Amino acid sequence: SRYTGQEDVAVGTAVANRGRVEVEALVGFFVNTLVLRSDLSGNPTFSELLRRVSATALAAYSHQELPFEKLVEELDPERDLTRNSLFQVAFAFENVPLPSFQLADLEVDSIGVETNTSKFDLMLTLSESGGRLVGGLEYRTDLFARETVERMSLHLSNIFQSVTEDAGQNLSSVGMLSAAEVRQLTCAWNDTATRYPKDSCIHELFEQQAAHAPEATALQFGVESISYGELNRRANQLAAYLRRRGVGAESRVGVCLERGAELIVAVLGVLKAGGAYVPFDADLPQERIAYMLNDACVSLVVSESHLAEALPEEVVPVVLVDVQREEIAAESADDAAAKTNAENLAYVIYTSGSTGRPKGVAVSHQAVVRLVKETNYIELTPQDVVLQYAPVSFDASTFEVWGALLNGCKLVCAPAGRLSLRELGEQIAGARVTTMWLTAGLFHQMVEEELESLRGVKRLLAGGDVLRPALVERALGELPGVELINGYGPTENTTFTCCYSMRGARGAGASVPLGLPISNTRVYVLDESMRPSALGVYGELYVGGDGLARGYVNEPRLTAERFVPNPFAEEPGERLYRTGDIVRRLSDGNIEFLGRRDGQVKLRGFRVEAGEIESVLCEHERVGECVVVVREFGQSGKRLVAYVTPRTTGETGDGELMSEELTNGELRRYLKARLPEYMIPSVFVSLARLPLTPNGKIDRAALPEPVRAVEAESHYREPRNATEEILAGIWAELLGLERVGLRDDFFELGGHSLLATQVASRARAAFRIELPLRALFENSVLEDLAAYIANLIAEGSAETRAAASADAIYAAPAVDDEEVEALLAEIEQLSDEQARLELAATAAAPGSTESES
């Protein structure tokens, strides 16, 4: 139970029937197998557990004549040739000596036999000898390492010692680990304390950098380059303006700006004014923006005029930095005396919430400083160039912005908006980026399609989801000198909790570890009773240290539930955050990820609570029940799938309930008005009812495999020319579909922003055009995008048109077989020299193309 986390444990044991038979003078026993199911639920005392096991064993032995094979036949479990269908762990207590006898001139006695094959995953054999219990563990070597089984035997001995000292203790109190193991798991691997400026605020450390090297480049955005001194002055002016508008310590200021110089000035200016920034994207639904502004008690919003229409009307005052530029520039450019301390709030970032509403994570200055100053997972110097690509509403931007600006690096802001893979690659190579962070999904795509652009990068951090070992190995093998860092951490512990550094070629193992805790961070793998899980045993990951957030804005109950007292605290009041991630410690202390305890998932770097999507879906007037899960769709990766049942509307004449018909487009439009793009399911599956387990819970394993919707046969319109055919082929391959029709919508077929970058990349290669990523979002229907591409080709040079001449060839007048035969006969009459002259003349003809030649 301690190793598996299960309270219903099935163990097989052999039983010998007492009936004797004589076959050619040999005496033997009938041997049968019993399966004993032990119930460890409710945290009973050990004495109570003994009574439960005794009752189970006596009941089983009373039916020991029932052949095990008959039981298997009746239960008909799913067969697996690699293991026993009903149990994988066996126990044998050898308390009856095997018989010895004389056969002719041969004396037969029982002896121990060692075998090279284990019949079960794990088998414990015990016998009595000299008043002691002795025995051994037999195990499958493809499942267990020898040191693991040796550790198991020690843990079993520790349990025996604990329960014999006190059989009345509850199971949660029974000791299994040795004192040395507990010290290793809780202390030695958490010895991460280092000296860093923990009492300084973010803006104070930036001011020190500006004073040290005022002429050094702090920020580059396109052709605009801003020095540390100039950035400090502009942020001071905005800070002074905001202070006059009432911003002070603990004030929350909304920031709605696109990636660029104004964004960096804004967040720095808010901190200098004493406030905390609350970032959000303009393309979010207005209802969601309004909720976040109200929930965070935002006093005003910093934005620009072209984004103002995205803001909810009359929610809070707005400062438009472009409109009020002269007023802001008239303010003092001098540093102001600090009115905040390291424990004050620095920002509030909203993440998906299981209650149906996003929740705001409140992070202090100290937590951010702990992330980027005097840390052990990376060393940033003024010679480094850091790419800023993550949305500021995504906490990866915390590392990008403050990691660069508090260490004297040059921060390069990528162009605003979504970038294609090629555009991102050109940005990385052109700016000579040395340090950058990518979501796992984007990292995978860049390695597959834009690997060359990463050659100048020295430190590449990737995370937000599970990294694929094969692509990690490829990146390390083909990018000599690069350090690849798997960065793991929830927003509640300020971006990074653990990091795993990789250099040079490595074997592609089963998984890439999350690594060890970074400086001033502690991590624990604990079981349900918050005891340390043994080495190699899965448990829930709890994290703590100086990076821990305050909690959730206006959510005291949720904060208390997720931020719990640290049972291993060295100082009173220390807390741990329950991540909900199921992990285990490897033998070297590194953490390995298995999955989630709840419905939370990571998609394209974003944290998504399935419960929030389900809650919003169930508010639809025609949705009865729903469940949202994640499915793998081959090359296109993970997708959200929503299973919905229609709400009943009344009874038919036969007494059966009628249901409202639901359409994918209707549900997609409904969610788009309420949720961000990354939270909208790719596929909607309508069911008459959701499958249930015997105890009435939704049986997620029984949900049918989704089939993506394409145009019905009666409405299907096939591509008409080569441009449409090529584009349809690209979509079908990326989306895993057999066909795509003219009126199919990329996003309604399950496409998303990350896949859109691949469409743009492949279209560029196929048509030799520069297809901006926004074109796909503005022309998401295949017919419309094909027309857009055709216009690009028509407007391009003759060379471009030649490269994309498949369309022209497709549309050329048909040539019948007789004409082809006549043409071939004519060519046959030409000598080699005449053929060369004819070809040269054709190529030189006015208006001829390379393909015609």
Care to describe what's here?
The protein has 853 residues and is an alpha/beta fold. The chain contains 25 helices and 35 strands. It has a five-stranded mixed β-sheet. Strand 8 and strand 9 form a beta hairpin. It is globular and about 110 Å long.
Features:
35 strands; alpha/beta; 5-stranded mixed sheet; single chain; 24% strand; 25 helices; 31% helix
Global shape: globular
- Integer-rounded radius of gyration: 34 Å
First-last Cα distance: 75 Å
Mean pLDDT, all residues: 84
Return residue spans where pLDDT drops below 50 for at least 5 consecutive residues.
18-29, 709-714, 797-817, 839-853
Number of helices: 25
- Beta-strand residue percentage: 15-25%
Strand order of the largest sheet: 2-1-3-6-7
Question: Secondary-structure blueprint of this entry?
Answer:
Blueprint lengths: L7 E16 L2 E14 L6 H16 L6 H8 L13 E6 L6 E3 L2 E3 L13 E8 L2 E8 L6 H20 L13 H8 L15 H11 L4 E5 L2 E4 H17 L7 E4 L5 H12 L3 E4 L6 H10 L2 E6 L14 E3 L4 H5 L15 E7 L7 E6 H8 L12 E4 L7 H10 L4 E4 L7 H10 L4 E5 H10 L9 E5 L5 H10 L4 E6 L9 E6 L12 E2 L3 E6 L12 E7 L5 E2 L3 H7 E3 L9 E11 L5 E6 L3 E4 L2 E4 H9 L4 E10 L5 E9 L1 E4 L5 E3 L4 H9 L10 E4 L35 H14 L17 H15 L5 H6 L3 H14 L2 H6 L2 H6 L5 H12 L3 H13 L9
Parallel strand pairs: 1-3, 3-6, 8-17, 10-11, 10-12, 12-13, 16-17, 18-19, 19-20, 32-35
Antiparallel strand pairs: 1-2, 4-5, 6-7, 8-9, 14-15, 15-25, 20-21, 21-22, 23-24, 24-27, 26-27, 27-28, 29-30, 31-32, 33-34
Helix pairs in contact: 5-6, 6-7, 10-11, 18-19, 18-21
